[in-house]
Amino acid sequence: MSLLEAAPAPLVLPHAxxxxxxxxxxxxxxxxxxxxxxxxxxxxxLLATPRREMTVxxxxxxxxxxxxxxxxxxxxxxxxxxxxxGGLRYSPNVTLDEVRALAMWMTWKCALLxxxxxxxxxxxxxxxxxxxxxxxxxxxxxxxxxxxxxxxPEKDIPAPDMGTDERTMAWIMDTYSVNVGYTVPxxxxxxxxxxxxxxxxxxxxxxxxxxxxxxALKHRGIRPEGATAAVQGFGKVGHDAAVFLTDAGVRVVGxxxxxxxxxxxxxxxxxxxxxxxxxxxxxxGFDGAEPIDxxxxxxxxxDLLVPAAVEGVLHxxxxxxxxAPVIVEGANGPTSPAADLIFAANGQLVxxxxxxxxxxxxxxxxxxxxxxxxxxxxxxxxxxxxxxRMLAAWHQVVDYAAARDLSLRAxxxxxxxERVAEAHLLRGLYP
Length: 431
Ligand code: GLU
Known about the structure:
Layout: H1 22-37, H2 41-48, E1 52-61, E2 67-78, E3 84-90, H3 96-112, E4 118-124, H4 133-147, E5 156-160, H5 166-180, H6 204-219, E6 228-232, H7 236-247, E7 251-257, E8 260-263, H8 270-280, E9 290-292, H9 294-298, E10 304-307, E11 326-328, H10 337-345, E12 349-351, H11 353-356, H12 359-373, H13 379-404, H14 408-427
This protein binds glutamic acid.
Glutamic acid binds near residues 86, 161 and 332.
């Protein structure tokens, strides 16, 4: 039997828009910021180009004895402000260009929230739902050992992203620790609490999204209590965001996942819906709501839309049908630049990903700090510090946007790019 047998073609789900890739979108957002800042072409190219990229083959011995080969990536976009930081994504759609885009957004996110990191992202071209836990463990350990030379608690610190979770982080931590010969909690964040994970990390992104949604609704003169919302994605970010929004008095009338969407004008009972999803793996079929088309969810007549799934879902082809006055990006890169222009022309407020979903990396930073000090904070402390940072960044971005007549995305990107460029220029070029 050959080592690498012919593998069935991986399931490839189409991206929501064929118009532009996430990397096109990320580069075009950077160009717009460079235009405002008036930087030279040389500095622009430096900021647009990943500092370091690694592509690795990840062979898996399957439970049935056959072998499958996946491709893994780790891209470190920028290291000027500190070690690289960013999640690890398991998805059949992962490409090097997608990981490059996600790594660039991490650089801006960390700079905007003033956490002392550069940006990185990793990915493996695997659909985790098609593999057993022991298979995922072997893939994770092999991927980790392949990228071992470029990661470390002071070099590059992975965290969960789509398709990975705290269990994945435990395997990475163990593989790294066994290889260096001692336990290194700071090699990853988003670990289980019993291994040095932080209280509040698992729900941090959704908490931050909710804080930004409440702030944005108020900014628009809409009372959050009784406002209506639609949430695209019912995974790590969307699920808890729907719950926290409901707790804050927002009526979440629609949610979707990759299989479909459900709607109830009176508001969804998130607890019962969660139980249904735990039992069936999807939102459709829930008896407390009617099924609707997944794309139609984005176009519901609601006060707040939270795209919390994948990149590129709001694009030139559907943006003019999206009527929510407030859009809060739980996902990375859900809105294309063309859609941004349409939303701006229609007076809709978009809270950009690098601000809206930064709660995750903020608490990742707290986890890293706690691990470095071997001193743990309680949940209330974490939540308080998270809210403080999110709201401070919100005010900075809103004030900067108002002072320069920019969209929130442009303001957030300009602020972040300026901080990265300043660090780079102060350090100077070597040699
Ligand atoms: N994957 C998350 C993000 O996109 C978190 C990254 C981290 O905590 O390092 O922001």
